[in-house]
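To the wet lab folks,

You asked to see what we're planning to order before we commit. Fair enough. Below is the target structure as tokens, and below that is the sequence we designed to fit it. If anything looks off to you, flag it before the synthesis order goes out.
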């Protein structure tokens, strides 16, 4: 009984608590004064705390991690889906960059710009800590536990798919309208192989690759283009 109650409270935390904290974080003006590496460390620690709570809830309710799609997958299928997800996510990001350039998509928020690394050390932080943490923790929590629970509670897996993507998008409201919408679409994309093959591993791998490239290459490249446009 206690395990089920803990599971419900964890779902409420993901659906309401995390989005609220994300929204309030974006409204704090003093965040602009925080060193970038301190922001990275805060994000990493908060995600691992959330994942640790998820581990406790999963073990209490299921007794194993296979129940939340942490199960092996054949090598060829893993590689095929990892590549497909990476290409799909990067293509989507490229389309957004073009749309933003022409004013067809909301501009990136100031918070996103604050998080983009500038120095070599900051880029190492992103590749070694921020990107792998997001890949492991967010996939486990949102595409593992949340998607599993919603699939059991909602009328169909399609409803669960859409609802989990929406919650994932709301968790990124600190990135503004553009970031939240982008996260929702990517959340739906990364959920597909979980529903199709019952494994989180392709999604985790693709999530890491996408975040690493977005942080150390795509984001800074976009800022350079914008600065050139302003100079012109």
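Sequence we intend to order:
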């Amino acid at each position: 009984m206690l395990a089920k109650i803990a599971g419900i409270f964890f779902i409420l935390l993901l659906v309401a608590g995390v989005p609220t904290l994300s929204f309030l974080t974006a409204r704090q003006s003093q965040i602009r004064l925080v060193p970038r590496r301190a922001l990275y460390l805060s994000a990493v620690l908060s995600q691992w705390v959330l994942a640790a709570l998820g581990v406790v809830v999963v073990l209490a309710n299921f007794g194993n991690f296979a129940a939340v799609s942490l199960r092996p997958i054949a090598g060829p299928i893993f590689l095929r889906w990892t590549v497909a997800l990476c290409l799909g996510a990067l293509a989507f990001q490229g389309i957004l960059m073009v749309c933003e350039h022409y004013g067809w998509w909301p501009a990136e928020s100031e918070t996103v710009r604050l998080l983009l690394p500038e120095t070599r050390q900051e880029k190492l932080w992103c590749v070694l800590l921020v990107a792998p943490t997001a890949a492991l923790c967010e996939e486990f929590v949102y595409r593992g536990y949340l998607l599993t629970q919603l699939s059991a509670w909602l009328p169909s897996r399609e409803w669960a798919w859409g609802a989990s993507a929406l919650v994932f998008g709301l968790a990124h409201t600190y990135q503004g309208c553009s970031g939240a919408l982008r996260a929702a679409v990517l959340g739906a994309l990364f959920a597909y192989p979980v529903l199709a093959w019952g494994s989180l591993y392709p999604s985790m791998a693709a999530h890491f690759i996408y975040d690493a490239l977005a942080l150390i290459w795509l984001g800074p490249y976009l800022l350079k283009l914008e600065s050139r446009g302003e100079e012109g």
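Structural context that might help your review: The chain has one domain: 2-231. The first helix runs from residue 2 to 27.

Thanks,
Computational group
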